[in-house]
Amino acid sequence: MQLTFAASGPVTSGAWIVGALEGSQLTAAAAKADKASGGALSRGLKVSRFTGKRGQTMDVLAPAGVNASRIVLVGLGKAADLDGHAAEDIAAGIVGGLSRAGETTVTFDLDLPKGSKLKPGAFAAHLAMGARLKSYAFNQYRTKDLAEHESKLKTAKISTSDAAGAKKAWAALEAAADGMFLARDLVNEPPNVLSPAEFASRAKQLSKLGVKVEVLGEAQMTKLGMGALLGVGQGSERESQLVVMHWNGGRKKDAPVAFVGKGVCFDSGGLSLKPGTGMMGMKGDMGGAAAVVGAMRTLAARKARVNAVGVIGLVENMPDGKAQRPDDVVKTMSGQTIEVLNTDAEGRLVLADALTYTQQKFKPKFVIDLATLTGAIMVALGNENAGLFSNDDKLADRLTAAGKTSGEPVWRMPLGAGYDKAIKSKIADMKNIGGPYGGSITAAQFLQRFIEKGQAWAHLDIAGVAWQDGEQKPLTPGWATGFGVRLLDRLVAEHYEG
């Protein structure tokens, strides 16, 4: 979708979007549209249920004398509640409706009402963000009925009194949108296409933006002693990979921030085989790795003034004669041993070695891992919040605040010695599953055993938010959400750039 920012002017084609506050109070642009249409909006208000609540719409086909194809009155809600999230949701709703209607062009002529928390440029940029995110489509594998699935809406003009401010604000949001689209594409790809090697190849493309990318194969990981990660992938014909991405936008002496992602490109459960219905969607078990790649792309695209490292462990968890068995014991890069009682609790094994490598290699300011790790987090938090676990209150508070700002909320969950007892093994340093309760917590306790003393760390369990069935989330038209990209970018922008 082509997006432009310009001063308000005559609408010569397509849909003309104007706004009303709660209570059906027309904005100046809406009053202008009403006058141009001979009072069509006023007449419509008298016979409709439109009240101006956020997201409500009233669609009027443009009468003779108006060059637009239609005028859409959209509810802005209360001025005091009109923030960036609201603006994005409003624009996304409009784009969704116009796409279904077959429009090709739209002009957002929405005045920023007094009392809003936003400035005109930021308001326009967030409208553009909502329109852009809603325009996402993944149609690479369709060969029939493309017209049914592809939006005809190709251009959007955002009217604003501060075009320069809008373009400046949009530059950062556009970088995040591109990062989210990359993450969504990776999660949406079918597993016969996105093998660990193919995933690594796509991550290498970040080098075009100045990201240094290294790929470690199984021979190199064997030398490093990554028995946990390699154990997960040994049942697959496809070689496991560890991808290391560097963005050096800060001072040379500054320690990097570090992001680590679980990248199980397909999870059958291994010999602890999932039922058939449980395997559907397991192409998305690399959502954490996708978020890390998307975040690294975002930081590089906007030339973030920070040193950042992204490490992703890429494997397939498959049943095979060579596959890891329940009751196996593996030795990790950290030297600790794990009794593998369930081969379907594999993501934590991948992260264990990736976390150790990241800490020992880079000595980061903090390390945040992201993983579609447990179904238990969905029982606790549903599909609205990612689970946050941390050993550092400052980092946890900053992540929580960044989640609210970015629209990717997290909810802090507990850690404690009592939970840690659940993963004690009778024959090794630990086992990879706990008891029947608190599964997301015991998984986090497991990961914490691989965090070195004094290292600030946070774990984000994104199993409930990395994808969706249907279109429950206004900004996500499809399955993969790209969750985590905006969250990490916002965290860095607010606290860690020079």
Tell me what the structure shows.
- By secondary structure, this protein is an alpha/beta fold.
- It has 2 domains: 2-162, Leucine Aminopeptidase, subunit E, domain 1, CATH 3.40.220.10; 177-495, 3-Layer(aba) Sandwich (Aminopeptidase).
- It is 37% helix and 20% strand.
- The protein is built from 17 helices and 18 strands.
- An 8-stranded mixed sheet has the order 8-9-11-10-14-18-15-16, sandwiched between helices. Strands 1, 2, 3, 4, 5, 6 and 7 form a 7-stranded mixed sheet that branches. Strands 12-13-17 form a 3-stranded mixed sheet, with helices on one face.
- A hairpin with a 3-residue loop joins strand 2 and strand 3 (25-26).
- Helix 3 crosses helix 4, helix 11 packs across helix 17 and helix 14 (393-406) crosses helix 17.
- The radius of gyration is 24 Å and the shape is elongated.
- The two termini are 33 Å apart.
- The mean pLDDT is 97.
Number of helices: 17
Structural class: alpha/beta
Classify the oligomer.
single chain
* Low-confidence residue ranges: none
Could you describe the largest sheet, including whether it forms a barrel? 8 strands, mixed
Q: What is the CATH level 1 assignment of the largest domain?
A: Alpha Beta
Q: Percent of residues in beta strands?
A: 15-25%
* CA-based gyration radius: 24 Å
Name the shape in a single word: elongated
CATH architecture assignment of the largest domain: 3-Layer(aba) Sandwich
> How many β-strands, per DSSP?
18
What is the distance, rounded to the nearest whole angstrom, between the alpha carbons of the first and last residues?
33 Å
Task: Summarize the amount of helix as a percent range.
Answer: 25-40%
